[in-house]
Request: fold
Amino acid sequence: MKKLGLIGYPLGHSFSALYFSEKFEREGIADQFGYTAYPLREISDLSELIRSEPELIGLNITIPHKISILDYLDDYSEEVKSIGACNTIRIERSGSGGALKPRLIGYNTDAAGFEHSLLKLLDGALLPPALILGEGGAARAAIYVLTKLGCPEIKVLSLSRSSIPHARTVYASDISKHQLIINCTPIGMAGNTEREFRMDFEAITPEHFLMDMVYNPPMTQFLSLGKLYGARIMNGLDMLHAQAEKSWEIWTIK
Reply:
């Protein structure tokens, strides 16, 4: 059986294993493919994982390894080069028996998934100035797509725990200037719900679009308050499905 999987830490929030298991059952290939979540606290454990799983042909990468994975790749796509982050790897092995040597090729399917979902959210509306919350791998993919689509302005706010307090507040002045607001942080995610946005939600209007890359739970504080003030909203589930199908193509199409 060919194996696929997900690495990151923690992984309790992830629906990826369920998505692919249902896909394999639906397509009648559950006896050919399996998908496993591998909670790796340290990216340095990747080499041992690949060595111990000789049938592993591909992995998705999530928080916090989308950038640190770059040091372990043998090759990568132009999107990975441009974005500076990788969320999917294809594992090619050469040799025979115990001499199998893995070659890791990196891709970024977050970009394709994000673009697919963003265009659905806008539903024909012009792309407005964008405010990105967070600065990790998902944020880099969003910046890449927004730039490609000709976004008139992109502003990034870091919301890391190490930031000084005022840097973690999203003020009305920024909200009024940016009608597209995208959460690229794990704030609000299952297992991280104790953190909340310090954000002037009352500045949101029906002209705003709020996109949350979190999909579990489906309605975060960020989205529920955005909806309360009239914004059009979308969680990260559609993006997850789109990038998962792109990953499947990378793993299985020669």
User: Anything to note?
Assistant: The mean pLDDT is 92. The first helix runs from residue 16 to 26.
